[in-house]
Amino acid sequence: MFTQSLRMTLRDWRAGELRFLLIALVVAVAALSSVGFFVDRMRAGLNRDAHQVLGADLVVIADKPLDPSWRAEAQRRNLAQAETRLFASMATAGQGENSTSKLASIKAVTSGYPLRGNLKTAVQAEADGEETRDIPASGTVWADPALLSGLNAGIGDPLTLGDRAFTVARIITSEPDRGVSFVSFAPRVMLSMPDLESTGLVQLGSRVTFRLLLSGKPADVGAYQKWAQSRIDSGTFRGVRLETLESGRPEMRATLDRGELFLSLVSLLSAMLAAVAIAMAARRFMLRHLDACAMLRCLGMTQNEVTSLYLVEFLLIGLAGSVLGALVGFGAHFVLLEGLGKLVMKELPPVTALPALKGVATGLLLLVGFAMPPILQLRNVPHNRVIRREREAPRPLMLATYGSGLLVFVGLLLWQAGDIKLGLLTAAGFLGGFAAFALVGWLSLRSLRALRGSLSKPDWNFALTSLQRRPGATLLQTIALATGLMALLLLTVVRADLMSAWRNATPPDAPNHFMINIQPDQRADVEQRLRQGGIADPLLYPMVRGRLIQVNGATIGGETFIEDRAKRLVEREFNLSYMRDLPPQNQITAGRWLNDKQPEASVEEGLANTLSLKLGDRLTFDVVGQQVEATITSLRKLEWGSMRVNFFVIMNPPALQDMPQSWITAFYLPKGQDRFVSDLTRDFPNLTVIDVGSIIAQLQAVLEQVVTAVEFLFLFTLASGLLVLYAALLGSQDERIREAGLLRALGATRKQLRQAQLFEFFVVGALAGLMAASGAAVVGWVLARQVFDFPWTFNPSVWLAGLQRRSGGYRAPVL
Questions:
Q1: Residue 599 — pLDDT band, cuts 50, 70, 90?
Q2: How many Cβ atoms sit within 10 Å of the Cβ of residue 781?
Q3: Is residue 225 pLDDT above 70, yes or no?
Q4: N or C, which terminus of the chain has less Cβ within 10 Å?
Q5: Which residues contact 106 (CB under 8 A, 6 or more apart)?
Q6: Per-residue pLDDT tens for 608-624?
Q7: What is the Cα–Cα distance from 173 to 252, expressed in whole angstroms?
Q8: Reduced to 3 DSSP states, what percent helix, strand and coil does the chain have, rounded to the nearest 5?
Q9: Pick from 474, 419, 495: which is nearest to 715 by CA?
Q10: How far apart are CA 450 and CA 470, in angstroms?
């Protein structure tokens, strides 16, 4: 039986019967595996580069010196180590009456810092800086340009920290693990750890943050993290916490999550298009082998033997196509990397075998799920087909195989996505779109009956009659065209809208400076100075410090919660604010906005989840000894990547406007205008201006890297989409050839046949284009709102693009 299947495979290959199926499978697997290879390496590279914002793979943070066992365990697991100590103190420049002091963030580092990423330093204030793996030499410090500008100091000048004077050796232009803590808001001064003791700044009771930076193999880091977390959970080591990319940098994590979702979307669309192309190719194979199956049955073969012959043939083609597609995908991903050579600054991690195995398995699953139903139809071909060209109606068992094919497809989408929500939404969109396309197509075909015979041209009437004569084939062709076009529209028009919305989440002019400690009587003057400095419409917000002490009348504290983050939140003071209007980049997800009838509060939804808060809960805050109570009336979603002023809790003015307060603002300052900040802080010494430009640069660099990668990856999926369109149009080619030959024999001219076919394809293409555009718009809206979490509006051009991409360019053979 295997030998006979091999002979049939070679015969069908020579006859050209398997070439389209093999091409469809190779292109599908090549698209999936090339995406898989690149995504696998790109994700590893992105996570590696993203860890640079921590300066390590894992950071252990404590408010007192760590027990030596923490370092011993890291050494036992072969993890690289470095330490930093961080605290706030005054830095002084000048002598006697000419001396100037400014609050600075002091950071002492050990050799090897940072473990991930690189410091950038310069010897001139306006220079971009160069990467370095060194740390300050003994007796020298490195400082932020803002600090030196505020102190009127420069390279080579003395800078006093506590009991010791240092020489400013370099200017810090970029620091990978700067973070957004309060201590980091002050301009940085960096010195070596051995020099810290000589300053006398760290005494008993000093508020110092001790950080142990660790890096190594992912498995070793993960094992150490579990070991460390178990010690923290035991309660033996209080004041110790772990910081990872996920927990320490929400704005960077949000960017990476969206990037991975975009990359997964490429794989999902490739899988969807591959399924349609293979199904169409398998159906065409089945239709062209009905006569051969009938002959085999007449020669004595049973149904099972016929089925086995073709299953073995398809298995051989599936293995060959999947392996060949994986090899093509492997080579194609190198072409992609070559095109991105300038973007990917560092060598990506080596390739693994997982994408290849995943590509081969995907090809076989697609073949089984979407080629099995047509092949099972061959087992039911009657003997008398050699005399009478009749085909039995599909049997229930055969129809059940279509259901199993859909289940295989849904499972494939979930596997390719790596995200249950994205996979389920895409599967639901595909199946829902398939059902909607079928219903709309069927209704449209029914409605065309009214036009038959009423058109002025006979060839147009013939085209409508042709569509009505084979409703099943016409409907299948329309659905396939609509599905392929919908994917192509998602990859082009809708993709551009999604990318634009993603970029707008962290625009180039996002605020890169924060200003805090603005006193109420300084508000008008500071706002005027900001306007004079070119900041249009500066937004200043009141800020009130308060500690959450009760929820619904029940006293809470650190011991109330189990999660470490919840403990830290309730043990510190919140930055509260009050306002009448919803601030920009805030979206109400539950409840309603505030009014002035009674004290009310709006809570950020992440905080609400952490502290188990819900609408209607009564919160009580302690504000400098006074209790403020407010009821939660809404939950808000924040866009952390916008870098605007955000508050966990916002109240209405009657609740907080009479409390002690300061004001805060965020603004964008173009590069080269640092003097504006220096003059402002000189005239208002109490102000603290925080430069977060480096964080913005990191966010935008990762964003552009992912966007460019996605743009290139879409080229592979576009190839699959074009293959689907060709398969849909090729499916009815044989029948059209027979019809054309019969009509020519009955006297039809070539011009009449051409016009009839053009009109027929115009009707099918226009209907498919309209359905595809509508489906792409709906899917794009769902993806933007439910998956990528940013606003998105419908683009009318998607319908024009859908009509322009109809199948008018195809020409069936005319005899």
A1: very high
A2: 15
A3: yes
A4: N
A5: 86, 87, 88, 89, 91, 161, 189, 191, 201
A6: 988 999 999 999 999 98
A7: 20
A8: 55, 15, 25
A9: 495
A10: 17
